[in-house]
């Protein structure tokens, strides 16, 4: 299973209506469950992302072809140049642990932490990443996906946790912050990831569509 993301930075609030329209065009053209997210209380204010889960790369390729051939979507997409800063950024991840059940309630918020495996530590880092996700799930009671970059920074990994609402997000954050064993284990496992502080980042996203 793969997670695909296409992101952009909106120039102003007017771009959100365009991004929402593009979401509906993409859903119609591809038949995929595509969601629109926006970063909140995080770096790169105004960054949005369209995301979709796909079972294989053939499905993703077919969806891309369908969107490229859709005249209405192409026309709407052309408006984006005036509504965004810079171009579009694509990212593709493989899900290593924690696939979300199809019947699971839709999340309103997502917390995402990204990092990079240390040189020569990829195998240990992947195992540590799964362990971190499992420990987070035990503390919060919420599924945490552990993903690995297919594209982008080589050795990049991430943890993605969905929250039904802002209260659930805050409760999860508080539970982890006050769990002494969690801090100890993360400190121990962190040695398998890049030591550069800038290599590890955390963002919060809110679902718009």
Can you walk through the features of this model?
There is one protein chain. The protein has 209 residues and is an alpha+beta fold. It folds into two domains: 2-93, Alpha-Beta Plaits (2-Layer Sandwich); 96-207, Alpha-Beta Plaits. The protein has helices at residues 14-30, 57-68, 71-77, 122-140, 166-177, 180-189, and strands spanning 2-10, 34-40, 47-54, 84-97, 109-116, 144-149, 156-163, 201-207. Strands 1-3-2-8-5-7-6-4 form an eight-stranded antiparallel β-barrel, surrounded by four helices. The two termini are 22 Å apart.
The CATH C-level class name of the largest domain: Alpha Beta
Question: Segments where pLDDT lies below 50 for 5+ residues?
Answer: none
Quaternary status: single chain
Main beta-sheet annotation: 8 strands, antiparallel, barrel
- Main sheet strand line-up: 1-3-2-8-5-7-6-4
Q: Give the rounded overall mean pLDDT.
A: 95
CATH topology of the largest domain: Alpha-Beta Plaits
Strand content: 25-35%
The figure for the number of domains is 2
The count of helical stretches stands at 6
